[in-house]
């Protein structure tokens, strides 16, 4: 759409998506269909996908308890979880792996909403598995103190994802005098702060790496705030160890 402003015309790109609520999704997707999507996955991807769906359901319940509904803006693509898991590096420190897991789940956006919240929750879960004394910092309190340190990470993550998808559009805007792009949720992207002049495929890889480094930094702060700052240096829990932890947690929940 074109808008005429005093200093010239502005063109705005609108993209189509899905609208509705998580309740609509529940009515549209049957358990049998979900089972069909989960069945061909490798064991790690299947367990992580099930946990993501559980996280999503919990967030949907929280919204309902607060008198609202969790909106959706895209289709459920749970079959993208194996792609995310395939890109996770299980080497390095515990916070390296927690950040890598969080980043790749967010990058694949398999859920119709709350991909950042579920990605963060998965990083927390990994740190709980890796550190016996790790205590998840409270991220849902009436005072919302957590926003002071969590929100900046989420906002910058969304900036990186947006630039990753649209670097060439943004380069054209910058060359025509645009200084700031505003995306949904009123997040401003100062174009001067990002390298835009590269091939689309190069930007796709470059900004994925920057996003993972950003999420690892978040995981390091998360570990420190959770009383286990040593996880920044501690060797990572293996893929098999993490899956065993998730399975045992599921078994404990079912027993209760």
The share of residues in extended strands comes to: 5-15%
Q: How much helicity do the residues have?
A: 55-70%
Structural class call reads mainly alpha
Q: What characterizes the major β-sheet?
A: 2 strands, antiparallel
Give the overall shape: globular
Order of helices and strands: EEHHHHHHHEEHH
* Radius of gyration from CA coordinates: 20 Å
User: How many strand elements?
Assistant: 4
- The low-pLDDT segments are none
Number of helical segments with 4 or more residues: 9
Average of pLDDT:
88
Strands in their spatial order, largest beta sheet: 1-2
Q: Which short descriptors sum up this protein?
A:
256 residues, mainly alpha, two-stranded antiparallel ribbon, 4 strands, 57% helix
Q: What can you see in these coordinates?
A:
The protein has 256 residues and is mainly α. It is 57% helix and 6% strand. The protein has 9 helices and 4 strands; from the N terminus they run E-E-H-H-H-H-H-H-H-E-E-H-H. The protein has a two-stranded antiparallel sheet with strand order 1-2. A two-stranded antiparallel ribbon has the order 3-4. Strand 1 and strand 2 form a beta hairpin. The longest helix is centred in the middle third of the chain and has 29 residues. The radius of gyration is 20 Å and the shape is globular. The model has no long low-confidence stretch (mean pLDDT 88).
